[in-house]
Specification:
10 strands; about 240 residues; about 40% helix; 10 helices; binds manganese (II) ion; alpha/beta; five-stranded parallel beta sheet; single chain
Length: about 240
């Protein structure tokens, strides 16, 4: 399973789709703009185990600000939201006020619609993302994708009920592995963030999210079979009433 990939952005997405359907138990395809969601959900329709999430990526908030209303008006039809969030890295910092306005509006709308499963970007802005989630406790089930905050921020995210999607790229570093060891095992799911995330310079494929199973087994001191069962039960709980 892969809880955060950009399947629409692989060069041969349409050819990949049947393979992803076959190899993955479940794939959450996140989009970077509401118009991409409209197109992608049409093209990827008809597969029970592939869901397309409605997003507006914070890194392109300025360029896509004119799609803000399209984002908000489609929350009612979209059980999955993402990729949304905030990016506080130096390049994106200037648009933070705009990013925050968009994020707050979409999270508030998720709450009004009865809650959504939301895949969130939080690089360099973890505290600010958590502030928004805290303000709208009925927004649904937030999944912090590729969490890279501090241990203290992780603790706060856990208290706010957040889930975490972690992948091979995040866990290739000591910091990512350290954070993983502090996450609640019943709120962790695999992701790739492909094709942006890579291993050995090659884009991760959506079925490679499972490459983290060995590391999870080591970290949680469980067998690989035990990890597969655990992840399946986590997924089931995440998707219940979605
Ligand atoms: Mn992403």
């Amino acid at each position: 399973m892969d809880l955060h990939c950009h399947l629409d952005l692989y060069p041969d997405a349409l050819k990949l789709l049947p393979e992803v359907v076959k190899r993955n138990q479940f794939t959450l395809v996140v989009t970077t703009s509401p118009r991409a969601w409209v197109a992608t959900s049409r093209v990827f329709a008809g597969y029970e185990n592939v869901k397309v999430a409605l997003g507006l990526h914070p890194e392109i908030a300025e360029r896509k600000a004119n799609e803000r209303d399209l984002l908000l008006s489609n929350v009612a039809q979209a059980p999955f939201i993402g990729e949304v969030g905030l990016d506080g890295s130096p390049r994106c910092r200037p648009s933070l006020p705009l990013q925050r306005a968009i994020l707050e509006a979409v999270i508030a709308e998720c709450g009004r619609q009865g809650g959504r499963i939301i895949s969130l970007h939080s690089r360099g802005a973890t505290t600010e993302v958590l502030d928004v989630l805290e303000k709208y406790p009925s927004a649904g089930k937030p999944i912090l994708h590729w969490f890279s905050g501090t241990s203290r921020e992780l603790q706060r995210a856990i208290e706010l009920g957040c889930w975490f999607s972690v992948g091979p790229a995040m866990l290739s570093g000591a910091k990512g592995r350290e954070l993983l060891s502090k996450m609640p095992t019943d709120r962790v799911l695999p992701e790739t963030d492909g094709p942006f995330a890579t291993v050995n310079k090659a884009p991760l494929m959506p079925w490679q999210a499972k490459d983290i199973v060995g590391l999870l087994a080591e970290t949680w001191r469980e067998s690989e079979d035990g990890i597969h069962a655990k992840l399946a039960s986590n997924l089931k709980r995440l998707l219940s009433d979605a």
